């Protein structure tokens, strides 16, 4: 009996250590790796911008189309925006724009919904603080040639991950009923789970041309 109890105890300790290491890997090391990958991809995008005269709307940047800046999530917060929301993309520490089940409208479109997703925890956890956003907060999308400034007008703290209406061209549940130029940010909730989705809706309030020095717009200074 004593021998069996000792073996079981050792197995439980080993299991505890393994689980602890898994948590460290999931919540810390994957962030480190993803941030490194995203930083390299972001540097390549900015390098392309600096050495390519192609207009931003026609620019073919396989590493990303721009950056999202959200002061409410940190004074210098920015995340690279890429195409697609599959785990293969989001695990690289980026925000991806939806291609399915509803295709996102890119910022320069005359109307539509620029819909983005990013991880809440692990793999860069770029939207970990998305719950901090509230009505009136700003989000700025930086592209090669233009700054797109959006203002948050509504949030949905929790909804089903199957709520496709939240990312439609006229987002259902947002309070808007007419076509506009919207930005929708989505991530998992509650923290450390993927059971539900947290939604933030914003609308375009102005645009600003990027100058040669890439001077930040007033909202980011």
Automatic annotation (TrEMBL):
GO molecular function, one term: hydrolase activity
Transmembrane segments: 12-34
Coiled coil ranges: none
Record-linked InterPro entries: Sortase, Sortase_Class_E, Sortase_dom-sf, Sortase_E
Signal peptide: none
UniProt keyword annotations, A-Z: Hydrolase, Membrane, Transmembrane, Transmembrane helix
Pfam families: Sortase (PF04203)
Residues annotated as catalytic: 119, 188
Cross-referenced NCBIfam families: class_E_sortase, sortase_fam
Name of the protein: Class E sortase
Organism encoding this protein: Wenjunlia tyrosinilytica
